[in-house]
Every structure is written in structure tokens, then in C-alpha cells.
Design a protein that fits this description.
By secondary structure, this protein is an alpha/beta fold. It is 33% helix and 25% strand. The chain contains nine helices and 14 strands. α1 packs across α8 and α5 packs antiparallel against α9. The protein is globular.
């Protein structure tokens, strides 16, 4: 038996909110992986989380977790504004880091994280789960193979209407709250992963009373005349679909396109919807990939590369600049 290929990966989680719970649920479904430790600034919260998921170690500081020699990888689930600081802490302690999207608040922070990973020869990856989902890879395959010819237009949106609570992370500007970083990143990802970087961007936004962006409309233009029409909003529930109009057919990723769902192929007035039989969330698939990177002693993903993450945050930075959104 190749012990490297079956090495058990001991995981830690930093930040124990809603997303951390979902990640933990998917991690429990993975063989050869253990949720070994969790950390919160509140030890009681960490202990309660650990009890719920039968985790052996709960820490009241992030520093205590990264100093645990038995941890192989850390999932960072803290608010956006802390990703840079938390990732660098882990990387400086030689812990492989899977950091929730957006990778950080801006390109400068992402550059610093990547430089730290390289300096420590330690694995780092942005947790953009959509890239690893079977339905998204299926759609990408059809696009790359030009099953229906080249893309002529993209439409992608993500919108929901949360209860207005200015004390919550989603509405907290200091934590990177608002529609763009939280959900606008997904339509932008859809465009970047299929068409690459645009040559021109037009953006406009609306804002809540506390200057957090409530919605954002974006048009990405490409040198071949193709456009991507993208939208994020916290004002309405939208279809949350990604539609790729091609020369002789359409590839439609159904709601909600960024998470496990179905794909409809439309060609010559015929529609076929493919159901991928999902029983797990997206965390499962990205974690399988990340675990294998560790076993293969890789320091960078060949799917969610540093270059891709830098391009993604650069697009977010450009849109922020255009709509006048500042987090400082």
C-alpha cells in the first residue's frame, strides 16, 4: 500500500460561524481526513463546536491551534477582512491553508499571502468550491470543447434578500460586507473561468445607508465583441443562474449555479437537463482536491492557481474602484 496516497489529513478550522459548520459536515464524509481541532476567540464557542462534531481539540486562540504539531491543514472561515492575517499566521507555522473566498480584501493582501506561502514552501489555496463541482467541470468541458461553438454572451447573477441587520457580517463594511465580495465574486468567477480577463469593465452599484453595497451591475467586454452581463444583489432573490450563449446552443447552469445543481443543454429547440445526483456540498469536492495536493507534496493547486486568484481579486478591485466602494 502506498501510505502517502492514504495518509490521513488532520484538519483544523479557524472561525466557527455558519460556513465552518457546513465545511465540517462535508469533511466528516471524507475518508482519510479528520476534523482534529477547531479554534475561536471564544473558548466556549470552540468547545461547543467541537462537541457537536466530535472534535478532540478545541482552542480559545488561533495561535494555539497553529502551534499544534498534529495539524496538517487549516480551513479559514473567518470574515473576509481577517483572511490575510489568519492565512499568514498559519503559513508561518507551516500549516497548509484552504482559505474561504474571497481570498483577501484586495490584490496587495493576496500578493502577501502568496509570497508567504512560497517563502514557507507551504500549500495555499483559495476555497472557490464552484471550480471543483462536477456540474461546473461538465459545463467547462463543453465550453472548452466548443460543443455548441464559441461563447457569444454570458449572463450570470446571484441575489438574495436577507433580513436587514446592520450588526451582521453581511452588512458590516469593516468586515468586507456587501453584495460584491460576498456573492458578486461568483458571477465574476463564471466569466473569468470561461472567457478570461476582459478588456473593458463597466460597473454601477446601489448602497445601503451605511455605505455597504446593496447591488452591483457589471458588464465585462472582450476583444472579440463578447460580453458578460453580471449581477449581485442583496435587495431581491434572483434566478442565480449562469447562462452561456454559444453559436449553436446554450449551456445553462441552473439555480443556484455556484453550488451543487443541474445543467441544461439547449440545442436545436431540444433541452436536456443533467442531474449529477449530488448528496454533498461543494466543500467535499474542493477538500478532496486539497487533501490530494498535500499527499502529493504540491504547494499550489493546478485548478485554483495563484494566478487565477490574483486575476479574480484584481477584477473585484477594479469594480470596487469604479463604484467608489472603499473598506478602509
Amino acid at each position: 500500500m502506498d501510505t502517502k496516497q492514504h495518509k490521513n489529513i488532520n484538519w483544523g478550522i479557524i472561525g466557527l460561524g455558519k460556513i465552518a459548520n457546513k465545511f465540517a459536515q462535508d469533511l466528516l464524509k471524507i475518508e482519510d481526513a479528520t476534523l482534529y481541532a477547531v479554534a475561536s476567540r471564544n473558548l466556549n464557542k470552540a468547545s461547543e463546536f467541537a462537541k457537536n462534531y466530535n472534535v478532540s481539540h478545541a482552542y480559545g486562540t488561533y495561535e494555539a491551534l497553529v502551534n499544534d504539531p498534529n495539524i496538517d491543514a487549516v480551513y479559514i472561515a473567518t470574515p473576509h477582512a481577517f483572511h490575510n492575517e489568519n492565512a499568514i499566521l498559519c503559513l508561518n507555522h507551516k500549516k497548509a491553508v484552504l482559505c474561504e473566498k474571497p481570498f483577501a480584501m484586495n490584490l496587495n493582501e493576496v500578493d502577501e499571502m502568496v509570497a508567504t506561502a512560497k517563502a514557507n514552501n507551504t500549500l495555499l489555496m483559495e476555497a472557490m468550491w464552484t471550480y471543483f463541482l462536477p456540474h461546473y467541470q461538465f459545463a467547462l468541458n463543453h465550453i472548452e470543447n466548443e460543443t455548441f461553438g464559441k461563447i457569444v454572451k454570458i449572463e450570470a447573477d446571484f441575489g438574495f434578500k436577507p433580513e436587514i441587520d446592520l450588526t451582521s457580517r453581511v452588512f458590516d463594511k469593516t468586515l468586507g460586507g456587501g453584495s460584491l465580495l460576498d456573492i458578486g465574486i461568483y458571477p465574476i468567477f463564471a466569466a473569468l473561468s470561461t472567457l478570461g480577463e476582459p478588456v473593458h469593465i463597466e460597473s454601477k452599484a446601489t448602497f445601503f445607508d451605511n455605505d455597504v453595497d446593496s447591488s452591483c451591475l457589471m458588464v465585462f467586454s472582450y476583444d472579440n465583441g463578447v460580453e458578460a452581463h453580471l449581477k449581485s444583489t442583496l435587495l431581491d432573490k434572483t434566478p442565480t443562474e449562469a447562462i452561456f450563449y454559444c453559436e449553436s446552443g446554450t449551456i445553462k447552469i441552473n439555480s443556484r449555479f455556484q453550488e451543487p445543481t443541474t445543467v441544461t443543454l439547449i440545442h436545436q429547440d431540444k433541452e436536456e437537463t443533467i442531474d449529477f445526483g449530488y448528496t454533498k456540498n461543494g466543500y467535499y469536492y474542493e477538500t478532496l482536491h486539497f487533501n490530494q495536493l498535500i499527499r502529493d507534496n504540491k504547494k499550489e493547486s493546478d485548478i485554483m492557481t495563484f494566478d487565477f486568484s490574483k486575476k479574480l481579486i484584481t477584477l473585484l478591485d477594479t469594480v470596487r474602484s469604479q463604484i467608489g466602494l472603499k473598506y478602509e
